[in-house]
Amino acid sequence: MLAVVCLLVVAGLPAGSSGAGTTGTGVLRVLQMNLCNSGRAGCYSGRAVRQAVDVIAAEAPDVVTLNEICRDDVVTLERTLRAARSGGTVVSAFQAAGDRPSGGPTRCNNGEPYGIGLLARLDDGDARPSVHRGTYPAQDFADPEERVWLCVRAAGLHACTTHLANTSAQVALAQCGQLLGTVVPGVRGDAVSAPTVVGGDLNLRAGGTPDVRSCVPVGYRRIDDGARQQILASSGVTICCRRAVDMRGATDHPALLATMIRSWSPPPPGLY
């Protein structure tokens, strides 16, 4: 029944519009991708960004969360999202992962900073979105890469992404707790009527040890790709549909697409 309602809402929107950034009830489409584009990992193909361009052009999402990318990849993919659908303002942000030995950013093989990125299509009225970023206090010191988080806060939407530790599940769980329990509420502030979406490769599974669900706040909705990529949404958002999108061997992860119905009803007092 929920899927039917979602499809009816989508069908009721004007062509080329998802209702993102609007008041009332609308549909929000979030696309999570891990592109394995550092050039250093065995999953690197050199084709992931081109494939991501094709997926974004075909799906025209409202939010794209990006892991394992080089800084200039964000520029290419922002241009693609802007061209995928008219209307609204597309904003982008990038955050480099830290490199503990050098004290600088981790770098791709091409010399660019390596890390995570975020694209979002906002209402034209969201003229001054703010970008928030940081490094987790919990890190696996056996791994030279320091894991980070990235968020964009706007009047109608808060969106965040991260790529958590892959060398220690306990560290990944601590980072997840920090993101959802401290970072996201801090970014939201008192603007709890706007929905929050989080996408990323959390390197934690539902049913795993530890279980990713143990760090998800009460009231949040969550879907995954059957493995470690997750998309979460705050109270007031219903995830009605999910779909794995084939990346045609360009990376070792499928893309994960979530379709959400959102309402501007504020969450119950004390939920956050």
From TrEMBL:
One of its GO terms (molecular function) is exonuclease activity. This is Endonuclease/Exonuclease/phosphatase family protein. Residues 1-20 form the signal peptide. Keywords: Endonuclease, Exonuclease, Hydrolase, Nuclease, Signal. It comes from Micromonospora marina.
